[in-house]
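Kindly go through one protein, given below as sequence and tokens. The question is how this chain folds according to its tokens.

***
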Amino acid sequence: MPESFRSEREDLERALQEFLRKNQAGILRAARETAASLSRGGKVLFFGNGGSAAEAQHLSAELVNRMTRDRPALAAMALSTDTSALTSIANDSAYDHIFSRQLEALGRSGDVAVALSTSGNSPSILRGLEAAKRGGMLTVALLGRDGGLAGKLAEIPLVVETPVTARIQEVHLFTGHLFCEAVEAILFPAPSPKD
């Protein structure tokens, strides 16, 4: 294995271990509260920019379709997928409002808003979290570095404390899978093996 690959792998392992050590309880809380919201007819609204937008779409699909087992669909969506809404909001108002306007329109009290941001300082993410809080939604944020301003806004901030964007996004995806698996397991527990 080239030395650079080994170094990248070791960086990822360190970032993931440290993140899980500090955030395991937060991940489980987010999963429990999300499962409770979904069981009451709520939905999960994911949002992020760039690579985080792609991860938002990925995680939304895991809930809508399936993560590890066949089960009824769960209400989730990514706010980066409606190009007409995104471009009209950015054009008529400001890019900063692309998520907040959608959360105002689509979110309801008791829903869950999940923000993904490597810096935690993107204005569109901050406005989105503010709109979700005003709307009575639970706010969860997968963040990086020191969490930025979003770390102070989110009710459940989950921060990957590394400056390397690639490591942050890798840990975010792993965490998103853990979150989706936990939500699925809470709502649809595996049948007990028969004796």
User: Anything to note?
Assistant: Residues 9 and 192 are 37 Å apart (CA to CA). DSSP finds seven helices and five strands in the chain. Helices lie at 3-39, 51-64, 83-92, 98-106, 123-134, 150-153, 165-187. The mean pLDDT is 96.
